[in-house]
Amino acid sequence: MRSTVIETKIDSQGRTPSAAAHYIKRAFPIYLMILPGLLSIVLFKYLPMFGIVISFQQYSPFKGIWGSKWVGLDHFVRLFTEQQFVTLLQNTLILNLIDICFYFPAPIIFALILNEVRVRWFKSTLQTVVYLPHFVSMIVVVGITVVLFASEFGGVNQWLDAIGLPRYEGLTDPDHFRWIWLLQNIWKEVGWSAIIYLAALASIDPTLYEAAVMDGANRWRQIWHITLPSLAQVILILFILRLGSFIDIGFEHIFLLQNPLNLVVSDVFDTYIYRIGVQQGEFSYTTAVGLFKSVVGLSLVLSANAIAKRSGKEGVY
């Protein structure tokens, strides 16, 4: 007597091909919504990665990638032996450390404060007012700062002259550049960056607070033992992602505030790439600089994620 064994293929989720096809058909509108974002990532993130090959070439726009001379690691050797490398690295690291120490906690603190406000109309008004600067262009923000604090025609300096006080040279004094940059970042983005923390706070089970009140815990105890532990995972993930741009401090804001008098503290890798790559046309060399930044950022993310995993936390992946 022969027994017939019917083999049925199943996918990784345990579904038969017909079930998988039915699932895809049912979820097709969701896949259709994902498609524009997916195409955007492929076109503007992954395909341009092929261009990093010119960091190993002496690229010529007339010869193209396939016809340009291969120079290996010469551009990286030049970067690490460049006289400005230490200054660029130092300025970038200091600005990033200031950003992590002061700007990164600011949205968390604002979200905690806003969460404690019990007057609904005041809470919504304050939230809206703090959100609004996010939609103001950084060019406008820096322009307002220049109009107020410019050495010659700034409104604040004219007022200081009128009352007999010394001028404030914040835009030209290297000692003040970093703090002006930080305060502008906080004023512009703290409200918008707090949204994700407010969403996490809204998901906390209110019965935890009720139980804490029954146990006699005051507001500070509730924040310390309930609110902050509930935010810990979100804070950790955002911190790991922030490390990915540790060397990539950004171009626009720094460039707008930069001038010859504060260049000693404001010159970072991004402004250096613009000056050498765009203005002087050294595309291969500045691509190597960009690749260096990306490798450092990726290494920091992978390392931080591994440390979080080993500590028993959930990382980014």
UniProtKB/TrEMBL annotation:
Keywords attached to this entry: Membrane, Transmembrane, Transmembrane helix, Transport
All copies of domain ABC transmembrane type-1, residue ranges: 89-304
Pfam families: BPD_transp_1
SUPFAM superfamilies listed in its UniProt record: MetI-like
Localisation: Cell membrane; Membrane
Membrane topology: Multi-pass membrane protein
Domain of life, source organism: Bacteria
Transmembrane regions: 30-56, 93-117, 129-150, 190-211, 223-241, 288-308
Family membership: Belongs to the binding-protein-dependent transport system permease family.
Protein name: ABC transporter permease
Species of origin: Cohnella cellulosilytica
Species lineage: Bacteria, Bacillati, Bacillota, Bacilli, Bacillales
